[in-house]
Design goal:
The structure is a homodimer.
Chain A: E1 2-7, H1 11-22, E2 28-32, E3 38-40, E4 43-45, H2 47-56, H3 74-81, H4 92-106, H5 111-122, E5 127-130, E6 137-142, E7 145-148, H6 149-155, E8 164-168, H7 177-184, E9 186-191, H8 200-205, H9 209-218, E10 223-226, E11 229-230, E12 233-234, H10 239-245, H11 252-258, E13 265-269, H12 276-281, E14 285-289, H13 296-310
Parallel strand pairs in A: 1-2, 1-9, 2-5, 9-10, 10-13, 13-14
Antiparallel strand pairs in A: 3-4, 6-7, 6-8, 11-12
Helix pairs in contact in A: 1-2, 1-13, 4-5
Chain lengths: 313, 313
Amino acid sequence: MTIVALAGGTGGAKLARGLQLVLPAGDLAVVVNTADDVERHGLLVMPDHDATLYQLDGRFDAERGWGIAGETWTVIEELGTYGEETWFRLGDRDFATHIARTARISRGASVTDAVLALQATRGIPSAILPMTDARVRTQVRTDDGWLDFQEYFVHLRQAPEVREVRFDGIQAAAPTPRVEAAIGAATAVVIGPSNPIVSIGPILAVPGMWDLLGEARARGVPVVAVSPIVGGVALKGPADRMLASLGLESSARGVAAGYRELLDGFVLDEVDRDQEPDIRALGWRTLVTDTMMTDDASRARLAKAVLEFAGSR
Amino acid sequence: MTIVALAGGTGGAKLARGLQLVLPAGDLAVVVNTADDVERHGLLVMPDHDATLYQLDGRFDAERGWGIAGETWTVIEELGTYGEETWFRLGDRDFATHIARTARISRGASVTDAVLALQATRGIPSAILPMTDARVRTQVRTDDGWLDFQEYFVHLRQAPEVREVRFDGIQAAAPTPRVEAAIGAATAVVIGPSNPIVSIGPILAVPGMWDLLGEARARGVPVVAVSPIVGGVALKGPADRMLASLGLESSARGVAAGYRELLDGFVLDEVDRDQEPDIRALGWRTLVTDTMMTDDASRARLAKAVLEFAGSR
């Protein structure tokens, strides 16, 4: 049994942890968004991969909401004294991740091979697979023009309204052989509760990815999504405002509609129970449950419920 | 007035600090060996440049004899958990130097421009100039074959006997325009008390460097060297054993002879006073003085003595 989860760096990464907690070792492959990736100080930083890695190896800083718990900040502060920009905060342990990964790539490894080698050293029982080895970068258009995603997301703290989103380089991208194999072997696909536009969106926009998932569905593999919008708001990040400023509805229903014919099931929170009929009207099965993931117990509980729901058709 | 010092990472770097202490701001250019440089974890590490930088900006760890005082070791320990080799110890602050430099090079800067930019942020009144921007790497032949220098120097702790030394890439190297200009404007050249084979040797082996120094001498610019061998032994590093196993004499006299017609003055320690006649017999002026540099006062005293000696002909 292989469960494939699609994930960004927050809710999707948390649900991946829940899935890893309840699945037998080796049964989980997490396909992560790489369009948030960014070169900082000559190093390849992969926020969504790394949030998932730190969730799965137990190092994630739940309090801060990113990075590794118990971090120190010597390197970034020293880099500041050398004239490097430091608004993108990276801790010392986190730096080691970026250094080790970039070193492997500079020695000839693909992005996928580099991250799989790092994952192997952590002893995690899951595979975290970059959606593609090609360079794809999300850019957002604000009233001041196009910005790189992390400039908008971290430097400007998501203050500007987003008028348009594009994934630079996506036309030349393709799913990796590892992603193709994982989806080809999947017994269920779970789209995590991550930002549908800038986290799940780039994964689905990789040419060929939608077809891979469609073929899985045609083979009878359930594809279910978990809403990242609860009570009309995103638990973390700008998904709600982004949906609204792009003219979409910031609701479970709005997210569900965006996934179109890809799904056969949708998971929404109990507070959004009133939207269930609308989502069923799209032709999908629904699961209404508590989707809050505040600790490992609630992550495991949601993961178990989602897997049972996926397998119940 | 421009004083040009040639330096490796230990005695030469200490004398550079002494020279900076006694010279007016802007009057010192230190040409450093780059053949010890090494790529670690995808980053360009420049041991001789950095020892000189940390000497000149006051951060050098005199107790340990390398790196920055008060270092922490989070990044290298974390890199070890990711499967990176960690025998080449790099502190967190030191990592920032290598990251900032490699970042500038990856953005298109030459090695010289990258290190000058870092130096500018430290507010030091001297210039530290890589001998060349080309990639030159010292390799030593031991009874087990050719080794990269840092493999021999750090990993094997200089245990093997050195049978032969070569500077890989030296034929394609040239002094940088900054080095040419500094030597062209020099009023004196001081060859620091660094290993004559693997620290000063590569600098002098850069095609064109010997001629630049010879032309300076022909213009009447004094070129003086300070012996790194005192009482037959190197104060730090393997220079004495290296000289012996290459069939040379491990003595002030042996070092002096190696610099051949380049010099017109040689500085030796009081304990080697008995060698003064032999060195004079080579045709050079001599200065016998206390060459120990245990603190800033002794570094400044030696620097002052060397400058007076250089200017006294």
